[in-house]
Amino acid sequence: MERHYRVLDKVQSRILRMPNVVGVGVGYKQVGLTRTEKPAIIVFVEKKLPAAELSRSKKLPKKINGLETDVIEIGRVKLLERNMKMRPALPGSSIGHYKISAGTFGVIVKDKKSGEKLILSNNHILANGSNGSDGRANLGDAILQPGPYDGGRQSDKIAELVRFVPLIRAAEPSDCPVAAGIANIGNWFIKLVRPAYEMRFYKYSSTTNIVDCAVAKPINDELIGEDIVELGAVSGVGVVQENMWVQKSGRTTGVTSGHVTAMGVTLKVSLSDEESGWFSDQVVADLFCQPGDSGSLIIDKENKAVGLLFAGSNSHCIFNRIQNVINLLEIEL
């Protein structure tokens, strides 16, 4: 196709001056929606008009220097600003509980019993990392798009928290009355010599998490869309396998892909600077992710959902198996 590129260099500026043209390049000619194997100079237009409506000077020739051309309607081309307000809000964009920074809108699911549309993401994105009794979140709390870190305000509320799986921390303040009594006595003595110090009892948990997930109900279904930004519609539920290729569309790093590194993983995850939790039955993959990508849906090459991203390091991402998420939240994809 070297000849096509040489010809393109010569005619590019002339073609780009034509009305309605927004781009030009080299590719393969399309017939209807099917791509052929014929190389062509591709001209992108904002809107494809009937030939009868175009004057001769505005018509693109069928061939340029003996090379075939093809006109493709691409529409208006614009930046994909995932951290901005988006209506309808789409999976892959910024979202968050009103008390957090921002995460990723994972996907639209349905309540298994009522059939209502729900927004799926992580507990730490939609429920502020709540264990269910710590007051960090309550059912009915506002979910904003974009998330607060990206400028989301109360007027940007698109949904309300309806359900989440509590997050279990490795160590949490004890609620034992006996421990509380001992701590009160101890603190009375401590304050006599060290007023700035206090005694606290923590309970260590041997229970692990298997998911970090929550769902929110849109206040109006017209405020949300179903196609994932840059990846399109989800085609169903798949099964994650060793070494399989996966991808995600996240608020921070956009679309990235990689391969499954390990499955059945148990690991300790930092939930904040001071807190951590153990997670089991997790999947580790080498796709690139950064803070703010949490909540992204992990899909396979057929756009089938296989996981829900919730954590990562500088080199790997960690995600829940989607079937665990579906079962525990009682949802359908």
From TrEMBL:
Domain Nal1 N-terminal: 11-67
Superkingdom of source: Bacteria
Pfam families in the record: NAL1_N
InterPro entries assigned to the protein according to its UniProt record, in alphabetical order: Nal1_N, Peptidase_S1_PA, Peptidase_S1_PA_chymotrypsin
Protein name: Nal1 N-terminal domain-containing protein
Organism: Sporotomaculum syntrophicum
Record lineage: Bacteria, Bacillati, Bacillota, Clostridia, Eubacteriales
